[in-house]
Amino acid sequence: MCKPERNCYYVSAGAIVTLAMIIVGAGFSLIHKRASVTGISLKFSKGLVIQLNNSSLLTLDVATGNYSYVFETNDMIDFDFYSGHRLFINANKSIQTCSETCKGINEKYHFNWNVDAIVADKSSRKLYITDRSGENLYIVDIDNKYYNVVHLGISDLQKIVLDSLQGLVFISTPQTIIKGNMDGSWFSDIVQNCSVSAFALNRKEKSLYFADGLFIWSVDYSGKNKRLVATARNHVTNLVFSTGKLFFTTAGDASTAMSSCSVSNGVCSDITDTHLPGNIVQMKAYNFADWLVDNPCHYGSCEQMCLLNANQNYTCACKLGWRLASDEISCEKIHEYLIYRQDNYFRGIILNSTMNQFKKAFEPIKLNSIADGALTTFDYDARKNVVVFADSLTLRKLDLTSGSEKFFLENLSSDGVLALDWLSGKIIYVRDDVFGGCQRIVSRGIDDFSETDSSVVLYNDFDPFERVRSLTVHPVRGLIFFTILEITSRQSRISQMRVDGTEARSFFVDNFSDNINENLLAIDYREDRLYWFSADNATLHHTNLDGTDLISLNVQFLNNPTSVNVYENWVYVTDSIGIWRVNKNESDKHVQLINDVGIHSAKIFSKKQQILENVTNK
User: Fold this and answer.
1) pLDDT digit string (tens) for 120-139?
2) Which one, out of 107, 336, 406, 531, has a CA that is 20 to 30 A from the CA of 558?
3) Could you say which DSSP state residue 541 is in?
4) Under CATH, which number does the domain 194-290 receive?
């Protein structure tokens, strides 16, 4: 019940109309269904849409106080109006849409990510979607279904609010509110170290209101000029602003109660309570006149996506898997990128992109369970667009286009050691002996994942106390290099052989006898050089493939390297804190590309890397 000092109003649900929504996801496939509905068209220019009981939407005309109708759908997570006659609803991790009168065709699109909060921007015709678990902001073009993704790297993303006129997007977390441009650039914290439960924009004043516990504060768009606006009776759970009034709900009130107050001189006064015909889950405020702004994208010539940014300008962007060309208008398909494995995901980022906010090469692909935490190495075929890898139980092939995996049960090396000969289409890997005997280096066709054992033993002349710990192949030169760890002495050496298993011998390096890190081995295919690390990881060595011309680089800045890959002028190294790019001639020229944990291995994915020329002699 309302407290005596407050005015109380009760609303009847008598005139509410119910209609059924059609489930819609997002992605690339369309499913057409016919909706049995009475039609939607908001009857106000300024108003609230309130979610009740996780399933219904009720509309309130702020000017008249009249309620109109309810939408019904199961397990509603979030919603937004794209215009007065088109609605997007997030239910069951999909986006549902109802267009025009909802009597025609409805579309269903499937996304590959979790859909949490959604905002539909009328002026730029875009959907903004957060994936809380992936720490991502997705921007989807409503018309042609193009999308790209900004990795914010911030956990527990919650509410999104846009100011299209200023080209700004605001996103809250439980502790902060961040602001960025609607083209996905220049995100920064504007509210910090608070318990942010809700926030709303005052677009006219270019300020925002946010709730911190019992208190409602205001700040400008820069996060400055903080001012106390109101004190609620309990923890504020929802907050919206419309026509000079704040509307909010609190945790301790009856779940049907909505409070409102007029904001005058920056302070809230005359708080009144209204009881609605259901439990209030969330609220959104709309002023459809705000959508009648000039869209600078109408005058642009972007090939794929046009995104608003600050100062009423726009930025051309490209869909995922493409990048902006030098003319900053057209798009070109990505042909090379950095692919890496982080925990149970394969991820890819674009290097040397002109748009730092759009760096993903593809959607992160989650792997099926990995036995005993293995999978330290992988290889790929750029022309087939597949990755091969292994744990101690299975040999696997991952299709980067579809995300599908194929498995073959094997008694593999516990280190998941393998390489791919892209010329012959053979996976070269290490098999443990079932009875604990010597290891074997074997090969199998990349497309041969039948139950029949068609593998070919290339080399098995190992001592029982020797273990192959890394392996790399040079298909053009017809050579395989691998490291051997002698378990009892803990000494390691490099060996080599032909790709057919013949001419096996130790790899001798002029004037070099130091112990090595047996886990790290790579080939520079352009320069025909072999790379490895010293046992203490402080030095990166490389020589010609015949062991001549030893060059050693100081890499003491690395922290426990776990993989190494060479492409063009750079060495790419993963360590315990991320991925580094190191100049292969001057190691003091290095940069950390990714600062994150859980990254086990990385390679440059490129067709140029995998030369098709077959030469037996250099």
Assistant:
1) 888 888 999 998 777 899 99
2) 336
3) E
4) 2.120.10.30
